[in-house]
């Protein structure tokens, strides 16, 4: 491990202790509602298998992925009593693989419902599913027209064991956005109608930010993702979540440049005085976004240093003129994501969100897991 870490251009440390603490905190806010976990996109770039194992150890029994292939890859590593839900539903013609691999589809359309019902009739057994309803995102889930069809003919779900009705919040990170209440009221109204046919039907509504909107939004099962991984769940408020990731890039070389010299592609930065530049082995091929050019920062022994010039495919350049030269040797690590420069702070400088920073973290990083 140490030898491999020394070869890598950058080291990504994932603190599973912090992940576990974040899960316990969110479960505590949910009270009696269950806390699931979104581990799609390789657990937001942090490794779906080690992340899921840690969460299962903390009591999580509901894991959410986006695609069937993600569920298949995960299933062999997760106990059979832990549900894995596939939020995109089944690819056309692959419904039977959900049975083979012990996964549960989230059905988003009448076509998906019909295909799942057909499989249930073929197998002569009730098959579990979650049905998603669109309450305002116009993205996934039954449309209003499809919902009316369902409410007028419940036989279309004959043979389907509807475990949860589910919807998704569009603006939960902004607690004052009126769409939150609009979606909540719409979802509550739909549940009242559905429960006349399915008494005791459970519901899932809240993502990470939705957990912080209050108990009315919790229902039976929440599906946090980003907050588990340290992203702030409420816009404009201090984050209660622990930082889970630390990213450190390795210095390749340093050089002295004279006043007026340019750095990097397209000459976007020029030295206004003699300067020392460190080249670090991280670039946009590693998910260090090009939009961080001339505005990102790193830290060396707690000292903030600016990124200068454009982010390249494999490297960034830092102005380290005011850093102790003894810290600038080839192979030295500089902090790119750390307590002084959190995922959310990096995202703000890049003009994006913490989700994109995490899910962009590239495969060339040497990943190191810390656990209890």
TrEMBL record:
Its cofactor is pyridoxal 5'-phosphate. PANTHER family: ALANINE RACEMASE (PTHR30511), ALANINE RACEMASE, CATABOLIC-RELATED (PTHR30511:SF0). Substrate binds at residues 139, 313. Pathway: Amino-acid biosynthesis; D-alanine biosynthesis; D-alanine from L-alanine: step 1/1. The modification N6-(pyridoxal phosphate)lysine is found at residue 40. Catalyzes the interconversion of L-alanine and D-alanine. May also act on other amino acids. The lineage of its organism: Bacteria, Pseudomonadati, Pseudomonadota, Betaproteobacteria, Burkholderiales. The active site is at 40 (proton acceptor), 265 (proton acceptor). Belongs to the alanine racemase family. It holds the Pfam family Ala_racemase_C. This is Alanine racemase. GO terms for molecular function: alanine racemase activity. Keywords: Isomerase, Pyridoxal phosphate. Residues 244-370 form the Alanine racemase C-terminal domain. It catalyses: L-alanine = D-alanine. Its EC number is 5.1.1.1. PROSITE patterns: ALANINE_RACEMASE (PS00395).
């Amino acid at each position: 491990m140490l030898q491999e870490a020394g070869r890598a251009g950058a080291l990504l440390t994932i603190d599973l202790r912090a992940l576990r603490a974040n899960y316990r905190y969110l479960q505590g806010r949910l009270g009696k509602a269950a806390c699931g976990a979104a581990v799609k996109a390789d657990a937001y770039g942090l490794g779906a298998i080690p992340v899921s194992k840690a969460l299962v150890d903390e009591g999580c029994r509901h894991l959410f992925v986006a695609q069937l292939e993600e569920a298949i890859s995960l299933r062999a590593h997760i106990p059979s009593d832990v549900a894995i839900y596939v939020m995109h539903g089944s690819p056309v013609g692959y419904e039977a693989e959900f049975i083979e691999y012990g996964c549960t589809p989230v059905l988003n359309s009448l076509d998906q419902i019909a295909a799942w019902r057909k499989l249930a009739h073929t197998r002569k057994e009730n098959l579990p599913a979650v049905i998603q309803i669109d309450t305002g995102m116009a993205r996934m889930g039954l449309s209003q027209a499809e919902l009316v069809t369902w409410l007028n003919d419940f036989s279309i779900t004959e043979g389907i064991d509807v475990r949860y009705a589910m919807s998704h919040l569009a603006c939960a990170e902004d607690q004052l956005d009126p769409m939150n209440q609009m979606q909540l009221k719409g979802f509550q109204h739909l549940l009242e109608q559905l429960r006349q046919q399915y008494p005791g039907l459970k519901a899932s509504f809240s993502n990470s930010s939705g957990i912080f909107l209050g108990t009315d939004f919790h229902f039976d099962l929440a599906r946090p993702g980003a907050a588990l991984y340290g992203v702030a769940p409420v816009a404009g408020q201090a984050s209660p979540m622990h930082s889970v990731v630390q990213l450190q890039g390795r210095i390749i070389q340093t050089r002295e440049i004279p006043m007026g010299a340019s750095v990097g592609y397209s000459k976007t930065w020029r030295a206004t005085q003699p300067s020392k530049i460190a080249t670090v082995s991280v670039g946009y091929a590693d998910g260090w976004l090009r939009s961080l050019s001339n505005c990102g920062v790193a830290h060396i022994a707690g000292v903030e240093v600016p990124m200068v010039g454009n982010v390249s495919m494999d490297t960034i350049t830092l102005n380290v003129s005011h850093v102790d030269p003894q810290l600038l040797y080839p192979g030295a690590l500089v902090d790119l994501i750390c307590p002084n420069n959190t995922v959310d702070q990096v995202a703000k400088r890049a003009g994006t969100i913490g989700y994109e920073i995490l899910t962009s973290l590239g495969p060339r990083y040497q990943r190191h897991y810390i656990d209890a």
